[in-house]
Amino acid sequence: MAQLTMYPGKAGSPKTTTTADITDSDTQLFLTELSVLPAAPNLLILSASPTIWEVCPYTLKQSASGAGYVTIVRSGAEWASSTGLAQSWASGTKVARNFFLYDYSALKNNVEDHETRLGTVEDTDILVLGYRYLPRFRYPSTRWASNSVRKQLGYGPDSRSVNIWVI
User: What are the domain boundaries of the chain?
Assistant: First the structure.
């Protein structure tokens, strides 16, 4: 499972509006205020009501603030729409960076992927500097490791057993 991009949010999800009509094939979205959106790349929502919306990734933000445009993508895994199709939007349409289903799905996927990777590591020998990690780990100087060092290396009653190999 691959990690998905997790985009930064915007506290409070402030809104702006479009300054021009856009068709279902336009890729530039002109806005009254760009500061309400995080830096590109990111996601935004165009909405006329809770049941009429379109989530678009944007790849370019003309400036940090003031009026300007963003370049939007109207297809792909991060894109979504209440109708399943790109839509036309009138001037004055609300635009914001909200928390979307994509954000939740990316977070869930990445946590599950991370847990899978950790599970794989916990069940695998680890190669480190040529010495096999045993309950009484031996340093190259032939001194025995203290209990605190052994615990830091992952050995102890409250940790899982891991073999560390030194190469």
Answer: 15-105, 123-167
Confirm if 34 and 62 have CB atoms less than 8 A apart.
Answer: yes
User: What is the DSSP secondary structure assignment for residue 104, as one 8-state letter?
Assistant: H
Beta-carbon count within 10 A of 128 CB: 13
SS3 content of the chain, % helix, strand, coil (to 5): 20, 25, 55
Query: What's the pTM value of the predicted model, to 2 decimals?
Result: 0.70
Quick: pLDDT tens for 116-131.
Answer: 887 766 655 555 554 4
pLDDT tens digits, one per residue of 51-102: 999 999 999 999 999 999 999 999 998 999 999 999 999 999 999 999 999 9
CA distances from 87 to 48, 55, 62, 70, 93 (A): 11, 11, 23, 17, 12
Helices (H) and strands (E) in the chain, counts: 2, 9
